UniProtKB/TrEMBL annotation:
The keyword Signal applies. This is Competence protein ComEA. GO terms for cellular component: type II protein secretion system complex. Pfam families: HHH_3. Keywords: Signal. PANTHER family: ENDONUCLEASE/EXONUCLEASE/PHOSPHATASE FAMILY DOMAIN-CONTAINING PROTEIN 1 (PTHR21180), ENDONUCLEASE_EXONUCLEASE_PHOSPHATASE FAMILY DOMAIN-CONTAINING PROTEIN 1 (PTHR21180:SF32). The keyword Oxidoreductase does not apply. GO terms for biological process: protein secretion by the type II secretion system. It comes from Pseudomonas putida (Arthrobacter siderocapsulatus). Residues 1-23 form the signal peptide.
Amino acid sequence: MRNGFLSSLVFAFLTTASMASNGAPVAKPETGNAPQMQEVSPKVVTDKIDLNTADGPTLQRELSGIGEAKANAIVAYRDMNGPFASVDELLEVKGIGKAILDRNREKLEVN
């Protein structure tokens, strides 16, 4: 009788332990909150001068045939008329002719 009682106790204990481990909540891995990496395309670095952002001294230093007066005229034109739509619009600036534009066309861009 003692063996039967002891076996019943062991069986009950193991059954309870087994049910407790099966019924315990399982921690789920957090897949939705993982940090995500964004791919950022690097800004293209060019040697060109942007007519819409360059200041007078930069224009004077980088462009051929552009002195202080013409560089200031370019900046003043941009301030009065808004950003340049194209490099060819530079011809509208007083003192800038086709020869100066052609000489500097490869150095200029408009963004």
